[in-house]
Amino acid sequence: MGLGHTRRHIAIARALSELEPSASVLLVTGTEEVTRLGIPAQVEILKLPGLRKVENGSYVSRRMSISAEEIRTFRASLLRTAVRSFKPNVVLVDKHPFGASGEFREALRIAKDQGARSVLGLRDILDSPETVAAEWTPYRTQRAIAKNYDQVFVYGHAHVFDSVREYRFPDVLASRTRFCGYVVNPAATPSGRGGEKRVVPLATTQQPLVIASAGGGEDGAFLIESFVRSAVDVPWKGMAVAGPMMPESRFRLLERIALRNRVIFRRFVPDLPNYLQIASAVVCMGGYNTLGEALAAGVPTVCVPRVEPREEQLIRAQAFGRLGLMTWLHPRELTPARLGAAISLAVNQSRQSIRSRVSRVLNFQGAQAAALQLHAQARESLIPGRLPLCSNP
User: Fold this and answer.
1) pTM across the whole model
2) pLDDT digits (tens, 9 = 90+) for 145-160
3) CB-CB contact of 51 with 30 (8 Å)
4) What would the mean pLDDT of 310-339 be, rounded to a whole number?
5) Residue 279 pLDDT > 50
6) What's the chain's average pLDDT?
7) What is the 3-state secondary structure (H, E, C) of the chain?
8) How far apart are CA 67 and CA 38, in angstroms?
9) From CA 343, how far away is CA 210, in angstroms rounded?
10) How, if at all, do strands 25-29 and 264-266 pair?
11) pLDDT attached to residue 135
């Protein structure tokens, strides 16, 4: 669904390719921008027809005029064919144990029957423990994960958010769970096919550069609008990244406001970690990837998390805020004036002090840790020859 799933798996695929250059990796995704993110040489892409979430657990086709059941059947058929043909040694699935609307359930069974090992990758925070319990308990999801998966990766730290405890993993599942640390894409020119690099024009770097990112952008217009409206008569230069999924009408409206307020405005920046290296501050939602990459870069961060339909971002913002790693504002309190005041404080913070605080409590080697575990799982599979299929919704 979102860019975050795909960017996380590209980071892991890159780490795996560096660890085992002979690996063959198939990345299965519905994200349209995948080929612009820099694909390692050993990695092939299977692009699924895209989905759009209408509510938690409910998906429809992003582009085609077909029913929800038809798009699920279509994608499930492609997944089954991929598993039968590729015969992966190990399958890594992101977040949804059986895919969106259960589309990966049969393909996972086929992979296991062929001798593959299976790994489920989870963000540190999925939602509030109460919500996850309400969604998982009727389907006995913890038991189903334990039955179908050889290992679980949690991309985070137990001292920040203990997923095993909060989501009540049974002992058999807890014993298979590994906290990997945070997965981030490194600040470097995207390597591999399709990698793009953009350089901030020199004329814009004479003032402190403040970047606002709405992640995928489907529900981030409120943050970008507050940011571009706050950038009037300020001693910093603003750059807003709307996100590729922002509705066109909202994008065009915000583009006009940004032009009037002399804010650099982009729909999508594939190499955002590079920009973070030269930014004096970043404004973002509480998504896993952007927030993690900002903290990894040591850039002063102002976070405005999404609070519905899931509380995941709010919980992450509160956790990082308690650790003194960033400033956060509740979206109900967001105004251009309040955001501008928070940015003014952020641009005067020392990157070195932030890096020092962050390095004491967070580890950003999650991709490398996951790659090591995947490599070990692949060696234990019953299929000779090939290495992981990475899949996400």
Assistant:
1) 0.91
2) 999 999 999 999 999 9
3) yes
4) 96
5) yes
6) 91
7) CCHHHHHHHHHHHHHHHHHCCCCCEEEEECCHHHHHCCECCCEEEEECCCEEEEECCEEEECCCCCCHHHHHHHHHHHHHHHHHHHCCCEEEEECCCCCHHHCCHHHHHHHHHCCCEEEEEEECCCCCHHHHHHHHHHHCHHHHHHHHCCEEEEECCCCCCCHHHHCCCCHHHHCCEEECCCCCCCCCCCCCECCCCCCCCHHHHCCCEEEEECCCCCCCHHHHHHHHHHCCCCCCEEEEECCCCCCHHHHHHHHHHHHHCCCEEECCCCCHHHHHHHCCEEEECCCHHHHHHHHHHCCCEEECCCCCCCCHHHHHHHHHHHCCCCEECCHHHCCHHHHHHHHHHHCCCCHHHHHHHHHHHCCCCHHHHHHHHHHHHHHHCCCCCCCCEEECC
8) 33
9) 8
10) unpaired
11) 93
Rounded mean pLDDT, 211-215 = 94
Structure tokens at 199: 């350089």
pLDDT 10s digits, 258-272: 999 999 999 999 888
Does 309 sit behind a cis peptide bond, omega within 30 degrees of 0 on the bond before it?
yes
By DSSP bridging, strand 58-61 and strand 51-55 are antiparallel
- CA–CA distance, 142 with 310 (Å, rounded to integer): 20
Which tens digits make up the pLDDT trace of 34-76? Answer: 888 889 888 999 999 998 887 766 889 988 999 999 999 999 9
Under a CB-based contact definition with an 8 Å cutoff, are residues 17 and 370 in contact?
A: no
The structure tokens listed for 245 are: 């999924």
Taking 90 as the threshold, does the pLDDT of residue 189 lie above it?
no
